[in-house]
Write a structure and sequence with these properties.
CATH topology of the largest domain: ABC transporter transmembrane region fold
CATH class of the largest domain: Mainly Alpha
Largest sheet: 6 strands, mixed
Order of helices and strands: HHHHHHHHHHEEEHEEHEHHHHEHEEEHH
Structural class: alpha/beta
Strand order of the largest sheet: 6-7-8-3-9-10
Distance between the termini: 61 Å
CATH superfamily of the largest domain: ABC transporter type 1, transmembrane domain
Number of strands: 10
Shape: elongated
Number of domains: 2
């Protein structure tokens, strides 16, 4: 229900257009009812052969309602779809604004295909919320009230019968449909999300599946997921078909009950046979207002599920006090970690425990440890993607928990372990780091990371498309392009997570020289398995099970027994064996 409340809150932003759309919708259906009513009066009266003067009003009425119905329907569609598209735009904006501040922490629990299904599928479902849920219900209520009073003017009991039939067909029947379909819609939403997630995983891992000849097993699992979704959709289609048949039955029973009650009244002289024809056709036409209600009930269930899923992403986003500090206030920043401990929300042990160190301008600190020691978690804390449970991370005394995350992130140039390259040109990917960089500066930084020959071979130079995730580049080229992007930034601290993992030793040495030259006056935090990169470090921190177990410079650490010496021996053996 919270999701639906948010949807209605967004609709209130467009109150004027919504009211105009509803008014036009009522006018369109009222014109249709008026058309059939005046047509019935005209034909029935003409059968008695009166003078043409007596039929002039009815003739004009038929013309008016016939023309106005089309005009009103066109205008209603125009305005309602305008409202719909504005609401959809607003939903997309709202989704991004809620997700972005807390990403990637608030997305970590979801598979990429599931997120894709929510962004695409759920938004597509909510696209119909106003046109197929809200508008039909409001229009139906107005028409039921108006038509019941009109027919009740001939005889009160007729108005009550029509009102009862319309309420059953427009609200009780859809409510039953909603109850019957609710569980199927929820199961279908989960099934579609699972199917989407499986499909994305299979497509992303297709190369590995083919290498290990495991594609048949995964395709079989994917086929079962598709079949489950198909079966659920068939059940919903059967419910929809049965609901449509029941709606038609309610319409016919209501009209028959009206005739059964009205015919004796004609015989008693309470109204004429002409009026009977008008009442009958008005009653039939009025059911146009409620024919969309069973579908609206199905869409309401689907919208409730979609809204709940969509709005659940982004809840609990990490936000600091915006504007607490600004980069201009800090000329010589110092990063201090004081007793930092961190445990993932569903974790049963601390990933980091009691970390203490300081990083000053021009200082270079290396973080060394086995896989799973907590190195990447440390980067997430520095970037305000997560927050420590105990201890503090401060920049010149400002706790990152009290700072605007955008400001804290602006203090770091980060090269993640798996840098993301966008489906764009070389220029577009580099300008992420420095939007005002000119071509000369971009080519210069490509030369610094040993990509100049690669650049000269590109068909369109800086405007060459590199594909999704840099698919048109080798692993080493992608790594160096990511490093080039980092070098374009001018920020106080540099964080490097395995910067040379995809590079040969000669290229790695050249690239690290460029990085050291560019960042000589900045604080550097280097996370690496490559012990060859540790020679120029001012301090080496060895992390085991989230704790700093050893610290010092390269030579003293090699002279003592411990984790660092074991890692060094393993690295030497690996190099010798290769």
């Amino acid at each position: 229900m919270n999701g639906l409340r948010r949807l209605f809150a967004i609709l209130r932003e467009f109150t004027g257009e919504v009211l105009l759309s509803l008014l036009l919708g009522v006018a369109a259906i009222a014109a249709g009812i008026g058309l059939l009513g005046t047509s019935a009066y005209l034909i029935s009266s003409a059968a008695l052969k009166p003078s043409i003067a007596e039929l002039q009003v009815a003739i004009v009425g038929v013309r008016f309602f016939g023309i106005s119905r089309g005009v009103f329907r066109y205008l209603e569609r125009l305005v309602s779809h305008s409202v719909n598209l504005r609401v959809l735009t607003r939903l997309r904006e709202d989704f991004y604004r809620r997700v972005e501040p807390g990403a990637p922490a608030n997305l970590a629990a979801h598979r990429s295909g599931e997120i894709l299904d929510r962004v695409m599928g759920d938004l597509e479902t909510l696209e119909n919320f106003y046109v197929r849920v809200v508008a039909p219900a409001v229009v139906a209520l107005v028409i039921i009230t108006g038509v019941s009073f009109f027919v009740g003017g001939y005889a009160l009991r007729l108005g009550l019968i029509l009102a009862l039939g319309l309420l059953i067909g427009g609200f009780l029947h859809p409510a039953l449909t909603a109850i019957v379909s609710k569980s199927h819609i929820q199961n279908l939403a989960r099934s579609k999300a699972d199917t989407s997630a499986r499909l994305v995983e299979v497509l992303q891992g297709l190369e590995d599946l083919q290498v290990y000849n495991a594609q048949d097993r995964y395709f079989g699992s994917l086929l079962k997921a598709f079949q489950l979704s198909g079966n659920l959709q068939k059940r919903l289609l059967n419910i929809s078909v049965g609901s449509s048949g029941l709606a038609l039955l309610i319409t016919n029973l209501t009209v028959l009950t009206l005739l059964w009650t009205a015919i004796p009244l004609v015989g008693d002289g309470e109204f004429t046979g002409i009026s009977l024809a008008v009442i009958t056709l008005v009653a039939i036409a009025s059911f146009e207002a409620v024919t969309a209600m069973p579908a609206a009930a199905l869409n309401l269930n689907a919208s409730a599920v979609a809204a709940a899923r969509l709005f659940s992403i982004g809840d609990g986003a990490i936000r600091g006090r915006v504007g607490a500090v600004t980069p201009d206030l800090i000329s010589c920043p110092e990063l201090i970690l004081d007793g930092v401990s961190f445990t993932y929300p569903e974790g049963d042990h601390a990933v980091l425990a009691g970390l203490d160190f300081a990083l000053k301008p021009g200082c270079k600190i290396a973080i060394v440890g086995a896989s799973g020691a907590g190195k990447t978690s440390l980067v997430n804390l520095l970037m305000s993607f997560a927050q420590p449970q105990t201890g503090s991370i401060r920049i010149n005394g400002v706790d990152l928990r009290d700072a605007d995350p955008e400001w804290s992130r602006s203090m770091f140039s980060v090269l993640p372990q798996s840098a993301y390259l966008f489906n764009d040109s070389v220029r577009g990917n580099l300008l992420l780091a420095k939007t005002d960089a000119d071509d000369k500066e971009l080519i210069c930084v490509l030369e610094e990371v040993d990509l100049l020959d690669w650049y000269h071979a590109l068909p369109d130079g800086l405007d060459s498309w590199i594909g999704e995730h840099g698919v048109r580049m080798s692993g080493g080229e992608r790594q160096r392009l990511a490093i080039a992007r980092l070098l374009l930034q001018d920020r106080p601290f540099v964080v490097l997570d395995e910067p040379t993992a995809s590079l040969d030793r000669v290229t790695a040495r050249k690239v690290m020289e460029s990085i050291n030259t560019r960042t000589g006056d900045k604080g550097m935090l280097l996370i690496t398995y490559d012990l060859d990169l540790l020679k120029g470090m001012d301090e080496i921190l060895v992390i085991s099970d989230g704790r700093i177990t050893q610290r010092g410079t390269l030579i003293p650490l090699l002279e003592m027994d411990g984790v660092f010496r074991d890692l060094f021996d393993l690295e030497n053996n690996r190099i010798r064996d290769s």
